[in-house]
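User: I'm new to structure prediction. If I give you an amino acid sequence, what do you actually give back? Let's try with this one:
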Amino acid sequence: MFKKISILVVLVFTSCSLETPTTFTPEALKEKIYSIKGDSFTFQEVINQYKGKKILIDFWASWCRDCIEGLPKVKELQKKFPDAVYLFLSVDTRNNSWKRGIQRYNIIGKHYNLPKGMKNGDLVDFVSLRWIPRYMVIDEAGIITLFKATDAFDKEIIQALKKTI
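Assistant: Good question. You get back a string of structure tokens that encode the predicted 3D arrangement of the chain. For your 165 residues, that looks like this:
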């Protein structure tokens, strides 16, 4: 009997945590990220720069094969949705690798680095970043309309970019 109750309690608590967030936590918004020039910003400051625009966030790394394979599709999205902001958040822990990756793959967009990598930090914890690439879409009002896509060919990305508020 105790075992059944324990399982029920675990299921109740885990099912509550499966709700898809529509806003970032205060801790995630305070996360420090760095520009190519080395300037430090909070994630909130970066997101606020693009208020009123749709944002596609691409969590990636220069060493990630799946990330690189997804770049041609992201470039197609950039052509199809040119008014959106394409925010590339690298989890490279080496700045030189990150910067070389941007140049090597000719990645056009806004670039920032999460210096703690993909396993540490409030933003990666909020996103539950266990796999990259990872795509998110934020609408013009700052609401997360697509929380998790791991494939650049995911139809939900296009739907979220098409959706108007």
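You can read the tokens as a compact description of the fold. Here is one thing that stands out. The beta strands are 32-35, 40-42, 55-60, 85-90, 110-113, 134-138, 144-149.
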